[in-house]
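Whiteboard transcription, Tuesday session. T.W. wrote the C-alpha cells on the left side:
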C-alpha cells in the first residue's frame, strides 16, 4: 500500500493569527520519516490548528512547512500528498463501504481495472472486506473509524494526519482502536501525526510528543522523557499526577509531610489518596492495591515521605 520511503515533516517559525488573536506562536519542529508523532494539549492549545496547517486547510500561516524536501506552505491540500482522518470520519452516508474507499482512487483517475484490487487490499488491512457492501449507518463507531483509515491510506499518502480520531468512541473501543492504529502505522511505516487532548492516549501510541499550550510549543520528547523530566509546571501538571510545591516555602524543604487523608479513589490496581498537609497544600499519593490489606480512610492521619532523588526543580 503506502511507500516505505516515508517523508519527514519540518515546521519552521510557524505562526498564525485570527484577526488580533495569536493561535500559533513560532512553532519549530522536525518529525522524522516513519515516526508516529503526537500534538498534545488542552482545548484551545493550537494542536488541531497546527495539524490543519500541515494539511493545508485554513489561512496560510507565517513560516515554512516542508514535507520531505519540498516546501508546501503555500500549496493547496490536494498537492501536498497527505491523508487526513477527521474527528467525524466524514464518510459518505449514501455510499457503501466499498464505494467510500474507492472514491479517492476514482477522483485521481486511477485505471478502473486497478481499483478493485486496491480497495480489497485496503479493506483487508483494516479487517473490513466482508463488510464492503454495507453503508456507514450499518457499522459500529470502530468500524466507521477503520473505513475512514482505509479510505485515507488507499491513496498512498506520504504523511498520515489523524485529528482526534478516537474521541467519538467509548473507553474500551478507544483502547482497541489505538492499538490497531499503531499496528497499522508500523506495518505501513508511514509518517503519522496524531492529535489528542488525552494524555494516556498520547503516551501509549507515540514515538514522540509535542506538548502545546496557548499556541506555544512547551516541550518535545518521548513519553517517558516528558513524564520524567518536564521543563515547566504546565508540562508536569498536564502529563500526570504531579505534586507541585512552592520551593520558596521553607516548610517545603522537609522530606516528610504529616497530614490527613482528605479524599480516596479506588482505581483497581491503585488507590489514589489526596493528603492535606496544611491549609493550602495537598499531595496526591498512589498506593498499590493489595487484597486483604487495609486501605486508609478519609480523615486518617498519615505521613507522606518524599524521596529527594525523585524531586525536580522547575523554573516556571
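and on the right, the sequence the group agreed on:
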Amino acid at each position: 500500500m503506502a511507500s516505505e520511503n516515508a517523508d519527514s515533516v519540518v515546521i519552521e517559525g510557524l505562526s498564525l493569527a485570527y484577526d488580533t488573536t495569536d493561535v500559533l506562536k513560532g512553532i519549530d519542529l522536525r518529525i522524522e520519516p516513519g515516526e508516529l508523532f503526537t500534538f498534545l494539549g488542552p482545548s484551545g492549545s493550537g494542536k488541531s490548528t497546527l495539524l490543519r496547517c500541515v494539511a493545508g486547510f485554513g489561512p496560510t500561516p507565517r513560516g515554512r512547512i516542508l514535507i520531505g524536501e519540498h516546501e508546501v506552505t503555500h500549496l493547496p491540500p490536494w498537492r501536498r500528498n497527505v491523508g487526513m482522518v477527521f474527528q467525524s470520519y466524514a464518510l459518505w452516508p449514501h455510499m457503501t463501504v466499498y464505494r467510500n474507499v474507492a472514491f479517492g482512487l476514482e477522483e485521481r483517475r486511477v485505471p478502473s481495472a486497478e481499483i478493485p484490487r486496491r480497495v480489497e487490499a485496503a479493506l483487508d488491512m483494516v479487517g473490513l472486506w466482508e463488510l464492503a457492501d454495507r453503508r456507514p449507518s450499518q457499522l459500529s463507531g470502530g468500524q466507521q473509524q477503520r473505513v475512514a483509515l482505509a479510505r485515507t491510506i488507499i491513496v498512498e499518502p506520504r504523511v498520515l494526519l489523524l485529528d482526534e480520531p478516537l474521541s467519538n468512541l467509548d473507553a474500551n473501543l478507544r483502547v482497541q482502536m489505538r492499538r490497531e492504529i499503531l499496528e497499522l502505522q508500523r506495518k505501513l511505516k508511514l509518517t503519522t501525526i496524531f492529535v489528542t487532548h488525552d494524555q494516556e492516549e498520547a503516551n501509549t501510541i507515540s514515538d514522540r510528543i509535542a506538548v502545546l499550550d496557548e499556541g506555544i510549543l512547551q516541550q518535545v520528547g518521548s513519553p517517558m522523557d516528558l513524564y520524567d523530566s518536564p521543563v515547566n509546571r504546565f508540562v508536569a501538571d498536564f502529563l500526570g499526577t504531579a505534586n507541585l510545591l512552592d520551593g520558596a516555602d521553607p516548610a517545603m524543604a522537609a522530606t516528610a509531610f504529616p497530614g490527613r487523608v482528605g479524599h480516596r479513589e479506588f482505581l483497581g490496581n491503585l488507590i489514589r489518596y489526596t493528603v492535606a498537609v496544611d491549609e493550602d497544600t495537598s499531595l496526591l499519593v498512589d498506593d498499590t492495591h493489595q487484597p486483604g490489606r487495609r486501605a486508609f480512610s478519609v480523615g486518617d492521619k498519615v505521613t507522606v515521605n518524599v524521596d529527594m532523588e525523585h524531586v525536580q526543580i522547575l523554573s516556571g
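Someone added at the bottom: The CA atoms of residues 166 and 293 lie 37 Å apart.
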